[in-house]
Specification:
By secondary structure, the protein is mainly α. The chain is built from 2 helices and no strands. The protein has one domain. It is elongated and about 45 Å long.
Length: 62
């Protein structure tokens, strides 16, 4: 098998990157450069907080 000892690092890094992307989408929405349904905005907010928590949990195992 392959060495997966660095997997928590890559999971945390991936979740951090996704959080940055979602934050960018939200920033464009706030500047009026992107329209989004309010329900989708709330879902995106919830997903962002979930990603942050998951990334932090993965980072604890580094």
């Amino acid at each position: 098998g392959r060495d997966v000892s660095a997997l928590p690092y890559y999971r945390a890094f991936n979740r951090f990157k996704l959080t940055c992307i979602l934050h960018g989408v939200y920033a464009r929405y706030r500047r009026g450069q992107k329209t989004i349904d309010p329900d989708e905005l709330e879902e995106m907010r919830q997903r962002t907080f979930g990603l942050i928590e998951s990334a932090a949990a993965d980072a604890e195992h580094l």
